[in-house]
Amino acid sequence: MTLHEIKANFGLPVTYLNPSRLTPANGRSKMGGDETYLIPEIDICPSCQQKRTLILELYKDEFPETFFPSNTDYLQVKTCYNDQCIDISDIVFKLGFGKILDLSPNRESMESHIPTVYFEPIFDVEIPYDTYESIEQLGLIKLLGVNKYEELIGEFTAKIGTKINGDIFVWHPIDIPKCSCGKKMSQFLQISSYEPCLQPEEDSPYWEWDPSLGVFIGKVGNYHFFTCKFCNNEEVEYRWDDL
């Protein structure tokens, strides 16, 4: 089987958001800065009573491949970076959904260490490895041998960086949550501390990498949101990993 056939048979569609524009091109979706709309459920940190920092906002009309619960068209991720609330043992990114027509515009500007950055998305596939392999894929690995198979697919395995769908990029294995239907949940959003699109010539070892947009998830960690794509259960689970 050729690499083209492997990608066609086993590849997971992925949208690399590629946050690299300081001015919007054709879209409103972005990372950092001020949120456009308020989602009251995730706006204020209950521990310190301060506004949470905006990490990401996505619009369904721009990224329809993203999971949106029924009757929603706006997604927002926020967290609290106030000193008294930062605890590496319990990093929590709050995910909120809403319908724009029902949301109030944000009128308050908040100073943030995360700059406003817009996207230049790239669409591709990632071949799952040690995560979502099918019986057929496992059979092919056995037929070709692990070393030859790894060499063949290496360029198309999971990537670090903020992305929609695709495979999970982790420094250390994590347990992929299971739905009540018994199937593994699928990643629908990954947020990363490190954005390779901002350092395309990076050649230092990964343990020297620093968060590139001010998004702190441990030490160059990744945050993963999951839902089930096999049934109508719209439950969302999350996991995070740290370098």
Mean pLDDT: 93
DSSP helix fraction = 10-25%
The gyration radius over C-alpha positions equals 18 Å
How many domain regions? 2
Shape: globular
How much strand?
25-35%
Distance between the termini: 35 Å
Order of helices and strands: HEEEEHEEEEEEHHEEEE
Number of helices: 4
**Main sheet summary:** 6 strands, antiparallel
Uncertain runs: none
Classify the secondary structure makeup into a structural class.
alpha+beta
Quantity of strands, as a count: 14
Strand order of the largest sheet: 10-1-11-12-13-14
Multimerization state: single chain
Features:
243 residues; alpha+beta; 2 domains
Written overview of the protein:
The chain has 243 residues and is of the alpha+beta class. The protein has 2 domains: 3-18 and 120-241, no CATH class; 22-117, no CATH class. 12% of the residues lie in helices and 25% in strands.
Brief summary:
The chain is built from 4 helices and 14 strands. The protein is an alpha+beta fold and 243 residues long.
Chain-wise SSE layout:
Blueprint: H1 3-10, E1 12-16, E2 19-21, E3 30-31, E4 37-38, H2 40-43, E5 53-59, E6 74-79, E7 94-98, E8 104-105, E9 117-119, E10 122-126, H3 135-144, H4 146-153, E11 163-165, E12 186-192, E13 222-227, E14 237-241
Antiparallel strand pairs: 1-10, 1-11, 2-9, 3-5, 3-9, 4-8, 5-6, 6-7, 11-12, 12-13, 13-14
